[in-house]
TrEMBL record:
Keywords: Antiport, Cell membrane, Ion transport, Membrane, Transmembrane, Transmembrane helix, Transport. It is found in: Cell membrane; Membrane. Its main location: membrane. Residues 616-679 form the MrpA C-terminal/MbhD domain. GO terms for molecular function: antiporter activity. Residues 135-407 form the NADH:quinone oxidoreductase/Mrp antiporter transmembrane domain. Residues 72-119 form the NADH-Ubiquinone oxidoreductase (complex I) chain 5 N-terminal domain. This is Putative cation efflux system protein. The keyword Nucleotide-binding does not apply. It comes from Fulvimarina pelagi HTCC2506. The chain crosses the membrane at residues 12-32, 39-57, 85-106, 118-135, 170-190, 279-299, 306-325, 331-355, 376-400, 412-437, 458-478, 508-526, 574-594, 606-626, 633-650, 656-674, 695-713, 751-769. PANTHER family: NA(+)/H(+) ANTIPORTER SUBUNIT (PTHR43373), NA(+)_H(+) ANTIPORTER SUBUNIT A (PTHR43373:SF1). One of its GO terms (cellular component) is plasma membrane. Gene3D superfamilies: NADH-ubiquinone/plastoquinone oxidoreductase chain 6, subunit NuoJ.
Length: 788
């Protein structure tokens, strides 16, 4: 059932806006209170967490909270939100882990000159991700989707003085932004082709999308958005390079936020797009490849953060693979693993930052013996690693058991996926203990001076997350009832009850789990040799997606440069010729396509003064053509404008005539002033062969405009707009001069824009007039180029 009123929906706006409010005051608060501002800023996500947690019992019973308001009614766009089991768990992870991340940032970034700015970026990122997972309207979803890309760009490139940080930020923005554009196209297709404007509509539509002839196009576009955001091969390259961000960003990015946005979208869309042959083929293949490749690269890395980054890539591949399998058990496994991964990966990343902070290095082969100096960090690392390795009694064990249950089928397809899952989990087991054991056991290297445990704000987060990984499994009944079962139900589209506990059962899944641990231990013991072999293998291959991204960007720059040389060569005559050719093609092409050429009109009987004005116009044209220099041509050009002003005046429109007189006078004066200040050739010395094409294009443009205006005049006149202005000009705007009312009231913003354009042009003209020719003027042989 839907509940439109309740504690969560009543305070939903408060929960959503709290991170943004905190982001707005963070720089000022930090400058005043220094390090003490951390605790106050952490209250914002903590309060949002409490608001969402208050509704957990209602959500567990199947209640769906929906709230919002009309945003752009004319386009049926609402600023609306939906909170069910799936979005509730994500919201709790984002705000709960986010609270510890803010506290962790206070200790890790202590003393940094831009600490306030960092808080602001982090809280904006938190608010963007929170809005994404609870958004209901499709356009609202996309807005928050792109906000996460923009704010992550700011966070990854926070240390903008380093080239690697700038490159990582740009790479993340390009890849995820490109996927976002594909997602926007998919969401618009769903709206326009099926009339579904929100996620609630999509979920209520049943098989409408699956049975649609546009299903393939929508699926590909949605998957492009999800795969780029959640770093599926070959789009995975941005995620390890995002490690150039400060460690709090890495911990938050990988645990509960941006990298799981694509997974969230796939889980959300599963009831509407899933369980088709395409879905169950594309997702498992991409997911399995990403899982194995990411896990191998994790073992190959020597930097703790890079190791953890690649395990995140592998974990995202595992989640996508499970969602693609689409069975109830697979969705349960994906749900359990997603929550477990958020807890242990957030903790391990904070451990990596604590090690770096205390030992001043993250290189695994340069670390050791830190357990006696950093005991709390070691305990936190061990708790998180045990969960990541799938050891009971931790929530990672529940997830791994369910993964193998989901894949224990006898057909070749599921066996291949099962092998990929075993290989990936074994490699991630080894990576977990490489991070959690090797830096802490053994003898401390001599180059590490005075390693130390960081303060409460640094070790509190990983310790609590590691402890929750244990508590969740020990109290699995409550854990499933309140968190995993509602989340799986919303993702699967039907009621799901999860019962798996931490006590092992002697079955195939447990046997495969034991096999995974054995393989993981072997890989851990041989990790140094494996790392060397993988490094040699990758060096032999050479080219990879990361290098390919650089090649693509360089190619894009070269292409842009080449196109610019063609379309923007710096020649005014080229621009004018191109515009006029396009104009001629548009005029004649449209009339030919629509069969809209006008009939030849009869020559009207003109009065003597009308003949005089017509002759004046023809005289002006001839004067421009035969002018001996450009200044004379400019003055002659004003004759046509004055002639048109006479027509306005004689036809009873003195205000338009006055405006035309002013425009023509100012145009002639300004152009004359400019030309006297610029070094231009006094006349056009081009040969006849160059003049004829321009003359031809100009004549064709004139004929085209004439024919087009005749076609407009000969069509039936629609008086609806005229009647509207006649009816409402006085009644609404209290003006009897309809033209003035249109300009000042009905089109007041347009008029203001035109005034701004005229003002800008005037300033530009003033700048040109005041230019003084220096001693080193740019010489050119081209008479069409201007030499200042």
């Amino acid at each position: 059932m839907d509940q439109l009123n309740g504690f969560v929906s009543d305070f939903g706006y408060v929960a959503l806006i709290l991170p943004f409010l905190a982001a707005a005051v963070a720089p000022l608060l930090t400058s005043v209170l220094k390090s003490h501002s951390t605790w106050l800023l952490a209250l914002a996500p903590a309060a949002a967490f409490v608001i969402f947690l208050r509704g957990i019992f209602e959500i567990a019973k199947g209640t769906v909270h929906r709230w919002g308001f009309e945003w752009i009614p004319s386009f049926d766009i609402a600023f609306s939100f939906r909170l069910d089991g799936l979005s509730m768990v994500f919201a709790l992870l984002i705000t709960g882990i986010g609270t510890f991340i803010i506290l962790y940032s206070g200790g890790y970034m202590k003393g940094h000159k831009d600490q306030g700015q960092f808080y602001s970026f982090m809280l904006m990122f938190m608010g963007s991700m929170l809005g994404l997972v609870v958004a209901d309207d499709l356009i609202t979803l996309f807005v928050f989707w792109e906000l996460t890309s923009i704010t992550s760009f700011l966070l990854i490139g926070f240390d903008h003085t380093r080239e690697k940080a700038r490159r990582g930020a740009v790479q993340a923005l390009v890849i995820t932004g490109g996927g976002g554009l594909a997602l926007l196209a998919g969401l618009i297709a769903i709206r326009e082709l099926h009339g579904l404007t929100s996620l609630s509509d999509i979920l209520e539509a049943g098989d409408a999308l699956r049975e649609s002839p546009y299903y393939l196009a929508v699926l590909i576009l949605v998957l492009c958005g999800a795969f780029t955001k959640s770093a599926q091969m070959p789009f995975h390259i941005w995620l390890p390079n995002a490690m150039e961000a400060p460690t709090p960003v890495s911990a938050y990015l990988h645990s509960a936020t941006m990298v799981k946005a694509g997974v969230y979208l796939l889980l959300r869309m599963h009831p509407a797009l899933g369980e088709t042959t395409l879905w169950m083929t594309i997702l498992p293949i991409f997911g399995a490849i990403t899982l194995v490749v990411g896990a191998l690269l994790a073992v190959r890395a020597s930097d703790i953060k890079i190791t953890l980054a690649y395990t995140t890539v592998a974990s995202l591949g595992l989640l996508v693979m499970l969602i693609g399998v689409s069975s109830e058990t697979a969705i349960i496994a994906a749900t359990l693993y997603l929550i477990a991964h958020s807890l242990f990966k957030g903790g391990l990343f904070m451990v990596a930052g604590s090690v770096d902070h205390g030992a001043h290095t993250r290189e695994i082969h340069r670390l050791g013996g830190l357990a006696r100096h950093m005991p709390i960090t070691f305990v936190a690392a061990l708790l998180c690693a045990l969960s990541m390795g799938g050891i009971t009694p931790f929530v990672g064990f529940l997830a791994k058991e369910e993964i193998y249950h989901a894949l224990e089928y006898g057909d070749f397809y599921h066996v291949a996926l099962l092998i990929a899952a075993i290989a990936g989990n074994a490699l991630m087991f080894a990576a977990a203990f490489i991070v959690a054991l090797q830096p802490f056991v053994g003898t401390k290297p001599q180059h590490i001076d005075h390693p130390h445990e960081s303060g409460l704000r640094v070790w509190l987060g990983p310790l609590v997350l590691g402890a929750l990984s244990l508590v969740g499994a020990l109290y699995y009944g409550v854990y499933h009832e309140l968190f995993s079962s509602p989340m799986a139900t919303a993702s699967y589209g039907e009621a799901v009850e999860i019962e798996i506990g931490w006590v092992p059962h002697l079955n195939l899944a447990f046997a495969l789990s034991c096999l995974t641990i054995v393989l993981g231990v072997i890989i851990y013991l041989a990790s140094t040799q494996i790392r060397q072999k993988l490094a040699q293998f990758l060096a032999a291959i050479g080219w990879g997606p990361d290098y390919g991204f650089d090649q693509a960007m360089r190619g894009l720059v070269r292409l842009a440069f080449g196109v610019t040389l063609i379309v923007q060569p710096g020649r005014l005559d080229y621009y004018m010729t191109t515009v006029m050719i396009a104009l001629v093609a548009a005029l004649f092409g449209s009339m030919w396509w629509a069969d809209g050429f006008p009939s030849v009109p009869e020559l009207p009987d003109l009065l003597p003064y009308e003949w005089i004005i017509l002759g004046l116009i023809v005289f002006g044209i001839l004067a421009v053509v035969v002018s001996r220099n450009r200044l004379q041509a400019i003055v002659s050009l004003g004759i046509q404008g004055y002639a048109v002003a006479f027509i306005f005046m004689l036809q009873g429109a003195p205000d338009l005539a006055f405006t035309q007189f002013m425009v023509e006078t100012l145009s002639v004066v300004i152009l004359a002033l400019v030309m006297t200040r610029l070094k231009l050739s006094p006349s056009d010395h081009r040969p006849l062969a160059q003049k004829l094409p321009d003359a031809t294009i100009g004549v064709l443009a004139g004929i085209g405009f004439g024919l087009f205006l005749l076609a407009v005049v000969q069509s039936d006149f629609d008086r609806s707009l005229s009647d509207f202005f006649e009816r409402y000009s006085y009644a609404i705007a209290h003006g009897r001069n309809i033209v003035n009312v249109i300009l000042v009231d009905f089109r007041g913003i347009d008029t203001m824009g035109e005034i701004a354009v005229v003002m800008t042009a005037g300033l530009a003209v003033l700048a040109l007039i005041r230019i003084r020719v220096g001693r080193r003027g740019i010489r050119t042989n081209d008479p069409m180029e201007v030499t200042p």
